[in-house]
Amino acid sequence: MKKTLISLAVLGAVSGVAHAQSSVTIYGIVDAGLVSERGGKAGNVTKVTSGVGSASRIGFRGTEDLGGGLSAVFTLEGGFAADTGVGDAAGLFQRQSFVGLVSKDAGALTLGRQYSPLYNALSQVADPFGAGLAGSAKNLFAASGGNVRYSNAVNYKSPALNGFAVELQYGLGEQSQAKAGRQLGAGLSYENGPLKARLAYNNRNNNTVGAAPVGIGHNTLFAANYDFGKVKAFFAYEDDKGALSSAIPNPTAYTAAAVASSKDSDTTLVGLTAPVGANGTVIASYIHKDDNEAANRDADQWALGYSYALSKRTSTYVAYAKIKNKRGASYTVGNNSEVGTGDKAFNLGIKHTF
Q1: Among candidates 332, 255, 335, 328, which has minimal Cα distance to 293?
Q2: What is the domain extent for residue 155?
Q3: Tens-place pLDDT, residues 22-53
Q4: 121 falls within a domain
Q5: What are the boundaries of the signal sequence (predicted)?
Q6: Of 107, 122, 109, whose CA–CA distance to 153 is shortest?
Q7: What is the pTM of this model?
Q8: pLDDT band at residue 14 using 50, 70 and 90 as cut-offs
Q9: Mean pLDDT for the chain overall
Q10: Can you tell me the distance from the alpha carbon of 92 to that of 98, in angstroms, rounded to the nearest whole number?
Q11: How far apart are alpha carbons 118 and 149 in whole angstroms?
Q12: Residue 203: which CATH number?
């Protein structure tokens, strides 16, 4: 009996250690706001929308310490509409779904559906609006559809060395022709004190076996921000070439016929954030889309916003943005979750993270 009790005590101790080495975190964002859009062909629209500043989501993130500086990790993340309670029609964990290994010395290798290096550079470094609200850089930068996330992807991130890190990503097209549908991504990042900079590349084969060829899109983005203390400055420049490489104009916003996206364009952003008091932040940006094709359908976007932190996890926001389209361009002012319907938009909402 005594030996049995000792054995159970040892097993309980070992079990406790194993449990301490593993963890699963439930996290998420609930974001809803009032959105007013003006200037579209369908008329003025006012609505309550989910994910205006940051897409509403719920996720599960886990890690297990395997010893020797090696850990197993996973992330499962799905979106939902806070205004209706409806889950995303694209799938249960369509935002992120991957598993992998992380080594302190060798870096991280993950497999599944993951963000592209291009989108991470735009949303995390370049855009003072964080790719959300009416002033989202996604309105004019090539950050939609498959350029945001890769499915069937193998991703590698190196450890940081003297502030530098490398990311490589390959998304298999999983078709009978190996190149059809495949995506390639690469990123080089540098962080040193107040400076953050990234250079990202995206290569997307839009062809489908058995269908008419569409072509390949190429995107190269340089993004940087610098924290001066009282003001943080943002800059981005992107070169887009090839099929579906550019931000796609809303085909029904201003014209009866669809307006194709440019296959050769450059986009530049300058912006800033500045603290106001202990809890407030002013956000501003200007973006210019330079269409290099013969039609020369350029566009300019001005945006201004304000965020106020009610606590560490809850904030309110207000934002306004306006796009000026030129020579038939039909870009619209959207937000984090939806494509806009007009050339002007106003947001007012609240975001809670958990």
Answers
A1: 328
A2: 21-353
A3: 999 999 999 999 999 999 877 899 999 999 99
A4: yes
A5: 1-20
A6: 109
A7: 0.91
A8: very low
A9: 91
A10: 13
A11: 9
A12: 2.40.160.10
